[in-house]
Amino acid sequence: MAESGEGLGTVPEHERILQEIQSTDTACVGPTLRSVYDDQPNAHKKFMEKLDACIRNHDKEIEKMCNFHHQGFVDAITELLKVRTDAEKLKVQVTDTNRRFQDAGKEVIVQTEDIIRCRIQQRNITTVIEKLQLCLPVLEMYSKLKEQMSAKRYYSALKTMEQLENVYFPRVSQYRFCQLMIENLPKLREDIKEISMSDLKDFLESIRKHSDKIGETAMKQAQQQKLFSVILQKQNNVKFGKTIYINDRIPEERNEIVLKPVFEEEDENEEEVLTVQDLVDFSPVYRCLHIYSVLGDEETFENYYRKQRKKQARLVLQPQSNMHETVDGYRRYFTQIVGFFVVEDHILHVTQGLVTRAYTDELWNMALSKIIAVLRAHSSYCTDPDLVLELKNLIVIFADTLQGYGFPVNRLFDLLFEIRDQYNETLLKKWAGVFRDIFEEDNYSPIPIVNEEEYKTVISKFPFQDPDVEKQSFPKKLPMSQSVPHIYIQVKEFIYASLKFSESLHRSSTEVDDMLRKSTNLLLTRTLSSCLLNLIKKPHIGLTELVQIIINTTHLEQACKYLEDFITNITNISQETVHTTRLYGLSTFKDARHAAEGEIYTKLNQKIDEFVQLADYDWTMSEPDGRASGYLMDLINFLRSIFQVFTHLPGKVAQTACMSACQHLSTSLMQMLLDSELKQISMGAVQQFNLDVIQCELFASSEPVPGFQGDTLQLAFIDLRQLLDLFMVWDWSTYLADYGQPASKYLRVNPNTALTLLEKMKDTSKKNNIFAQFRKNDRDKQKLIETVVKQLRSLLNGMSQHT
After folding, report:
1. How confident is the model over 364-368, as a mean pLDDT?
2. Are 678 and 619 in contact, with CB atoms under 8 Å apart?
3. For this UniProt entry, which residues form the secretion signal (predicted)?
4. Long-range contact list for 36-45, CB < 8 A, 24+ apart?
């Protein structure tokens, strides 16, 4: 029962396994079969039995199926056998037909092969044509490139290269010739760069050589434009009836030299106006710039161009060592600089980025500093005012030219103010020579006037006004000498010369007026004053000449107001303006006159000394000659003649000279008496000396120069007179008694002076007569002298103790 129960449980399991085997993929049947063996020990046997039963069932079903379809199968075989015969017949026919068809197609095959071959050739030709149509434009462009290279059309060649690379080469890049072309293009580009750079170098060298011509042309054009403006302004001024002062210029009649062009025209009839493009071919730099732009290396080109131009700028700014010797040296220097910057300005405006405004400004500032340093150094060597003036005109044209191209030039005009001071210095040196020549050629005598024509000629040169002289009949004399009108004319010429430098400096009339007055003051206070002082100090200038110099300076001083008016007429600036500088001529001529007066006093005293040195007194004479000494009479006659010349001098000058001469003569005579080398003086010598002093007093009382009050001039000899009276009268008791009293008769006699002279007389008394001690009168006189000497010494000792 147990087994039967177990058997019933196994049968469904085997059926399930069989169903799985039948329905499962063969590759996956392994696990199912393994489950048969995993079951109970007899399960395999039972499964096999079950499998055999299943197989038998299937065989039965197959057999049923075959039996069901067997008749149909037999019928089909029977039909197929019938068809076999027909099939064999058909095969024979097909084989025959095929044979006949093959035989007929052999010729067609041959023709077809020919057609195929032709079609292949046709296709190849078409392909070749298509490829050639692609290659021919490339070859044509490359050929065009070669032609452009040969024709030096490098910019076009680079554009052709771009087209080849971007358009044509991509179409034929698979061909070897294309690769060769592609490989050759970089070399062609380098060749173009080298060639264009070589052209640029030639261009740079060319503009370096032609810079002076470019600058000269530009400066000519600037000057012509300026002259045209000047002429136009002159015409307008004439039209409106104005005085012609153009840009603070000097009057028309003095402006002939100023309007003379700095640059002489080579061809006066040449009307063509040349430009920088007419003088320089800029195509190399344009071409090189375009080439480097196309090559993408524009920065390299810009750096190279700027570097080379900076080097050229340094060369242009380096002057020649002897530039200061001639105006042509300065002109070449300026024209080269102008040419350089005109080219740079042109490059700035016609190219994009090759040079920039910042670059040109930096270059100009560097150049301007160098130019100013060079001009400041070289102009300092100029000693010719005409050369300095021409240099100034060149600088003005130079500045105006560059200003027209947009370069700032204010520093150049500031430099001109420095050069103006130097110009004034050279003018002062030149006029110092002019003044010296005038003084050397002057005869220092009044100007003789024979007729009215001569008088008008002098008056036209110098503003002389004197009603008394005008009333005189011809011939007559003007008080001043020939040097006065000549100096006045030369001062005006100096003002004209100074004014020439002030024009075109873009300064107001007030500033020009101030400059003229300051430079004229320098001429008067320094140059003319120095020349006058040197003239006064010259040894060959005598008293007559000094008198004439004083007269001349008086008239020159009076003419200063006319110089003021002269400057006012030029500048149209009134003297009443607050800031107007006054001329210092008054003080200049006053100082010169004072110096001349002092020199008169000095020379007069020297002349007196010369006469005094001729004195030959016999100091031991017993009796006087009874007349004054010859040297003194000659001296007095000389003084009389000199003081007659002094009548043309101002009264105080003549009086001072006369008083100074008398005082000096008195002092010299006193020193003669008190000379330490003079050991003895007799009474006779004193009496003779008294006669000479009397002549001096007579001369003083004769009023050799009018204007003295009473006996003022005689007081110059009061010291001598009281001393001589004391010895002549021998009034020692009165002298000693009244000494120190304001009302003393011998107030001017110094005890020391009296003692010195008395000792000289004492020694004389001893030596005159060795027997004097035996004569009572002589003994008494000697005792009296000794007594007076003791009293004087006692008086002097008392004075020293009191002091």
Report:
1. 90
2. yes
3. none
4. 39/10, 39/13, 40/6, 40/10, 43/10, 43/14
Segments of 601-655 assigned E as strands? none
d(CA 347, CA 341): 10
Which residue matches tokens 């020293």? 800
Which residue reads 């050739």 in tokens? 121
Q: Cα separation of 218 and 203, whole Å?
A: 20
Residue whose entry in the numeric block shows the structure tokens 């011998």: 746
Instruction: Name which of 4-13, 332-341, 441-450 the model is least confident about.
Output: 4-13
Query: Taking 80 as the threshold, does the pLDDT of residue 267 lie above it?
Result: no
Q: Where in the chain is the domain with CATH 1.10.357.30?
A: 427-597
The pLDDT, as a whole number, for residue 764 is 58
Residue pair 522/582 in contact (Cβ under 8 Å)? The answer is no
Q: Token match 């270059």: residue?
A: 363
Ranges of CATH 1.20.58 domains, the chain: 648-800
Residue 240 has pLDDT above 70, yes or no: no
Q: Which residues lie across from 476 on neighbouring strands?
A: 449
pLDDT at 115: 92
CA separation for the pair 427, 675 (Å, rounded): 54
User: Residue 248: which region, alpha, beta or left (left: phi > 0; alpha: psi -120 to 50)?
Assistant: left
pTM score:
0.66
Compute CA distances 17 → 24, 27, 41, 45, 57, whole Å.
10, 15, 17, 14, 17
Return the CATH fold of 648-800.
Methane Monooxygenase Hydroxylase; Chain G, domain 1 (1.20.58)
- % of the chain at pLDDT higher than 70: 86
Nearest alpha-carbon partner for 260 in 423, 424, 393, 419 = 393
What does the DSSP 8-state code read for residue 26? G
pLDDT at 584: 64
Alpha-carbon dihedral sign for residues 767, 769, 774, 779: negative
CB-based contacts of 710: which residues, under 8 Å, 6+ apart? Answer: none
Give the range among 138-152, 236-250, 417-431 with minimum mean pLDDT: 236-250
- Whole-number mean pLDDT of the chain? 81
Cα separation, 163 vs 147, in Å, equals: 15
pLDDT by residue (tens digit) across 117-130?
A: 999 999 999 988 98
Structure-block tokens of residue 115: 């057609």
Choices 3.40.1390.20, 1.10.15.40, 1.10.357.30, 1.20.1250.10: CATH for 427-597: 1.10.357.30
Q: Tell me the chain's radius of gyration from C-alpha atoms.
A: 68
SS3 content of the chain, % helix, strand, coil (to 5): 75, 0, 20
* Neighbouring residues of 647: CB distance < 8 A, sequence distance ≥ 6: 654
Is the pLDDT at 626 greater than 50? The verdict is: yes
Dihedral pair phi/psi, residue 538, rounded to 5°: -65, 140
Lowest mean pLDDT of 180-194, 255-269, 295-309, 576-590, name the range: 255-269
Q: What is the mean pLDDT of residues 722-741?
A: 86
Q: DSSP H helical segments within 151-170, as ranges?
A: 154-163
The band of 11, judged by pLDDT with boundaries at 50, 70 and 90, is low
Buried b (16+ CB within 10 A) or exposed e, 330-357: bbbbbbbbbbbbbbbbbbbeebeebbee
Residue 630 above 50 pLDDT?
Answer: yes
Which residues are CB-neighbours of 308 under 8 A, at least 6 positions away? 201, 204
| 477 three-class SS | strand
Average pLDDT, stretch 453-476?
A: 83
Largest CA distance in the chain: 234
Dihedral angle over CA of 673, 679, 680, 681, nearest 10: -10
Q: In this predicted structure, what is the pLDDT of residue 313?
A: 85
CA distances from 447 to 454, 560, 597, 800 (A): 10, 20, 22, 61
- Tokens found for residue 435: 């003044």
Number of C-beta neighbours around residue 786 at 10 A: 13
